[in-house]
TrEMBL record:
<dbReference type="InterPro" id="IPR011598">
    <property type="entry name" value="bHLH_dom"/>
</dbReference>
<keyword id="KW-0238">DNA-binding</keyword>
<feature type="domain" description="BHLH">
    <location>
        <begin position="32"/>
        <end position="72"/>
    </location>
</feature>
<dbReference type="InterPro" id="IPR036638">
    <property type="entry name" value="HLH_DNA-bd_sf"/>
</dbReference>
<keyword id="KW-0804">Transcription</keyword>
<dbReference type="InterPro" id="IPR040238">
    <property type="entry name" value="TAL-like"/>
</dbReference>
<dbReference type="GO" id="GO:0046983">
    <property type="term" value="F:protein dimerization activity"/>
</dbReference>
<dbReference type="GO" id="GO:0000981">
    <property type="term" value="F:DNA-binding transcription factor activity, RNA polymerase II-specific"/>
</dbReference>
<protein>
    <submittedName>
        <fullName>Lymphoblastic leukemia derived sequence 1</fullName>
    </submittedName>
</protein>
<keyword id="KW-0805">Transcription regulation</keyword>
<dbReference type="GO" id="GO:0000978">
    <property type="term" value="F:RNA polymerase II cis-regulatory region sequence-specific DNA binding"/>
</dbReference>
<dbReference type="Pfam" id="PF00010">
    <property type="entry name" value="HLH"/>
</dbReference>
C-alpha cells in the first residue's frame, strides 16, 4: 500500500521549516513577547490619537475658538 506513515509525506525542507517555527516561537520568553506587544499597542494608540488630533484640526468649529468634545 502506498499510504504509509503520514510523517513520510512531509519533505525534509518542510520538517525543518516547522522545527524553526517551533523554536522561534518558544525561544522568546513570555516577558519579552509581552514587552513587544505592549510597545506595539502603545504605538498603535499614539497613531490613532494623532489621527484624531489631525481630524479635529481639520473639522471647522462654531464658534471658531471652541474645542470639539468627544461627543461632537
Amino acid at each position: 500500500c502506498w499510504i504509509s506513515d503520514p510523517e513520510s509525506w512531509i519533505t525534509p525542507r518542510q520538517r525543518e521549516a516547522a522545527r524553526e517555527r517551533r523554536l522561534s516561537d518558544d525561544s522568546r520568553p513570555r516577558v519579552v513577547r509581552q514587552i513587544f506587544t505592549n510597545s506595539r499597542e502603545r504605538w498603535r494608540q499614539q497613531s490613532v490619537n494623532g489621527a484624531f488630533a489631525e481630524l479635529r484640526r481639520l473639522i471647522p468649529t462654531h464658534p471658531p475658538d471652541s474645542k470639539l468634545s468627544k461627543n461632537d
